[in-house]
Specification:
By secondary structure, the protein is mainly alpha-helical. It has one domain. A hairpin with a 5-residue loop joins strand 1 and strand 2. Helix 8 packs antiparallel against helix 9 and helix 8 packs across helix 10. It starts with a helix and ends with a helix.
């Protein structure tokens, strides 16, 4: 008796669970709009930004990104006060994943719509941080922090857990391409290379602080995720991979007792396992994305590809 039907059923069940959590109950309809719409796109299937954002390494990379972003007191205050990360964590994740998918894989028209929608929301998100300092989500300085923390985390995850990491030149292209929607969202000067990205990250170090709200959010994300107990071991594997990608100073600030050797020799292998499992599960859905569609590459807007593949003007 062959186990193949049982294996396929388990693979599909895992894929559907992952898809529903990340993209929501209406994932098929959203996917049809993103992948099926005709029109010009900013990026092609062979572009680094497409490869990175379509990979299962985004799962642990997303955890890294959230942990890093929350170290800025104003960004954390905005999350704590406006995002509903505890009351509606999956909704927040689904909105973020939909935005990333639309601005990476969707048509220019749909991407611009998504960006305009987020800009409108940002205008309403404002308040004061733990020290009483005013913040607003549309602040270009704050938008830049969120952008560089996210891009750095996604790139680190792809380089660590993808089957075929980017070359150094491709990594620079990824940083530039990720800056295309970021610039339209309000980031004044997105980094144009990995070295610029890391330099901008370093420049924010004096502003970072592990507030009580940040530590509480980290505990929620890592120790008390809104999942049934049966799903927590799998999530824990992804979380271990995400934590392993954090710079040592960030782990120390958040009170995560994970020395560098443990991160490298325990967390990284767990991250590999988690990403590979996600990749296997999503493959079981049998959904065909236009990653090999040659006709799609002809509809990419030339001005954006010129920006992405040459020095910033």
């Amino acid at each position: 008796m062959t186990l193949q039907p049982v294996t396929r059923a388990l693979q599909r069940r895992l894929g559907m669970m992952l898809r529903d959590k990340v993209a929501g109950d209406d994932a098929p309809a959203r996917a049809a709009r993103i992948w099926g719409a005709e029109g010009e796109r900013w990026f092609a299937p062979t572009d680094p930004v497409w490869r990175v954002h379509a990979d299962a390494s985004m799962f642990p990379g997303g955890i890294t990104s959230l942990l890093l972003q929350m170290l800025h007191p104003m960004a954390m205050a905005g999350v704590a006060g406006h995002s509903g990360y505890k009351s509606d964590p999956w909704g927040r994740l689904q909105r973020t994943s939909h935005y990333l998918a639309t601005t990476t894989f969707g048509t220019v028209e749909h991407a611009e719509e998504a960006i305009a929608h987020v800009r409108e929301i940002h205008e309403r998100v404002r308040g004061r941080d733990a020290l009483g300092r005013p913040y607003r989500a549309s602040d270009p300085h704050l938008l830049t922090w969120v952008h560089v923390a996210e891009v750095d985390s996604f790139l680190r995850a792809f380089q660590a857990f993808a089957a075929a990491p980017l070359t150094s030149s491709e990594a620079d292209v990824y940083v530039r391409q990720a800056g295309v929607p970021a610039a339209r969202l309000g980031v004044p000067t997105p980094p144009a290379s990995v070295s610029e990205l890391r330099a901008v990250l370093t420049s924010y170090r004096p502003e970072l602080e592990a507030t009580d709200a940040a530590r509480e959010a980290a505990r929620f994300l890592l120790l008390d995720p809104p999942l049934p107990w049966t799903a927590r071991p799998g999530y824990g594997v992804l979380a271990a991979g995400g934590v392993s990608l954090l710079p040592g100073w960030a782990r120390e600030m958040l009170g995560l007792p994970v020395p560098d050797p443990v991160a490298r020799f325990v967390g990284r292998p767990l991250g590999h396992l988690g990403a590979a499992t996600v990749r296997w599960g999503m493959a079981g859905l049998g959904e065909r994305r236009p990653s090999d569609a040659r006709d799609q590459s002809a509809t990419v807007t030339r001005d954006v590809r010129d920006y992405s593949l040459t020095d910033r003007r």
